[in-house]
């Protein structure tokens, strides 16, 4: 039986120690990072939901006023970095964050040529109880 050198055995021991140190660190820190990213994402979503709640509660009284409604859609769209479209109960587009207000009267009514779904048009935004003031 061939004797292994001391340096080889020492290198093997250090290699095993390093391997287990890296493996344990990976699993521990991976869980910590996952938790950190999850909490950060949860906080960002909560803040955006709070913003949505505030914006929806401050919506204009006159939804049919295209100037006011379009400005509201523009404000919400820029705050959320999304396209926001407001549709009146008769299917006319009264606000859109991507369309200039002077072009809104020329946007096709969603009820033209389609069977209008009244339940969709009458849908309300439900705000979870955890977000309500």
Task: Summarize the model shown.
This protein is mostly helical and 133 residues long. It has helices spanning 6-57, 66-80, 118-121; strands spanning 85-87, 93-96. The longest helix has 52 residues, at 6-57.
What does it look like?
- The chain is 53% helix and 5% strand.
- It has three helices and two strands; from the N terminus they run H-H-E-E-H.
- It has helices at 6-57, 66-80, 118-121; strands spanning 85-87, 93-96.
- The protein has a two-stranded antiparallel ribbon.
- A hairpin with a 5-residue loop joins strand 1 and strand 2.
Structural topology:
Layout lengths: L5 H52 L8 H15 L4 E3 L5 E4 L21 H4 L12
Antiparallel strand pairs: 1-2
Query: Fraction of residues in helices?
Result: 40-55%
Spatial order of the strands in the main sheet?
1-2
The counted number of beta strands is 2
- Classify the secondary structure makeup into a structural class: mainly alpha
Order of helices and strands: HHEEH
Q: In whole angstroms, how far apart are the ends? A: 78 Å
Q: Write down the Rg.
A: 29 Å
Poorly predicted runs are 119-127
Which key terms come to mind for this protein?
5% strand, 133 residues, mainly alpha, rod-shaped, two-stranded antiparallel sheet
